[in-house]
Amino acid sequence: MSAAFPELERRALGEVWGQKKLLGAHLVGNALLLWAVYALLGRPDQTVWQLVVSALLALVVLFAAVWLHGTALAAFHGVGQAGTLRVGLPWASLRRLPKLLPWVLLAAALLALAVWLAGYGPRVTVYLSSRFTLWLRAPVSPQKIEWVYPALLRSLCLIGLLVLLPLASQAAGGGFSKRQALEMAAAWRYWLACALLVLAGIYLPGRLIWWILPVQGLFLETLSMLVRFSLAYLLAVTAWLTLAAVIGRLSTKEEE
């Protein structure tokens, strides 16, 4: 995978693979977080006490998720020209959570807004259908363009989250330079890296998960599913850590 990446991404990927403890912590930690979310969704919520307990557990899971990913941003933030990584900073990242929390809340608000806007999908699709019919002077059914609004909404949400990442990296790293973070978010080099890593960390895992191999028998089908899901999970976690490393390198302007 690294051979297909430009120099910056290859060096960042090498830093990720060179930090086996950090990679292992994220592989295990994110798996536990996914299990915790699944367990929370299965909890009963028939009484007020059950709702309170579920809310408290959700806060614990959210705190753990912010701390885990804050350690990645902190570890790679401000990588120097010698390539020294600031790993082994779990407690430092814990102290920096108050600085990181506003950007996490802003990201959560952006996701909530996207979910809310997704509810208007049928209305927007009908509107776009009528507009396309008017522009093209040919009937365009809503079924033909029902993918346009969800795709546009997901793309804008993803772009917004990627704009927030350099700001979150600055906060997790202990210092904060809003100007530097915004300059990075406006740089073409950053968006090229994001495009490559979104392809490697979201698109390819999705293709792996939904790729049905022509195998027969329960054992082979289960084995295929386990292998595909494991590879997809490894790709997603590695791509996320590589993006954190890319942000760390770009924050030093080493690549300019």
What brief labels describe this structure?
mainly alpha, 10 helices, 0% strand, globular, 256 residues
What does it look like?
The chain is mostly helical and 256 residues long. It has one domain. The two termini are 24 Å apart. The relative contact order is 0.14.
What structural class is derived from the secondary structure elements?
mainly alpha
Strand share of the residues? under 5%
Give the oligomeric state: single chain
Average pLDDT score: 83
- Main beta-sheet annotation: none
Indicate the percent of residues in helices: over 70%
**Count of DSSP strands:** 0
Supply the number of helical segments: 10
3D shape: globular
Unreliable residue stretches: 79-88
**End-to-end gap:** 24 Å
Give the topology string: H per helix, E per strand: HHHHHHHHHH
Number of domains: 1
Radius of gyration: 21 Å
Describe the structure concisely.
The protein is an all-alpha fold. It contains ten helices and no strands.
Secondary-structure topology with pairs:
Elements (H helix, E strand, L loop, with lengths): L6 H12 L1 H22 L6 H29 L13 H6 L1 H22 L2 H16 L11 H25 L5 H8 L2 H23 L7 H34 L5
Helix pairs in contact: 1-10, 2-3, 2-10, 3-7, 3-10, 5-7, 7-8, 7-10, 9-10
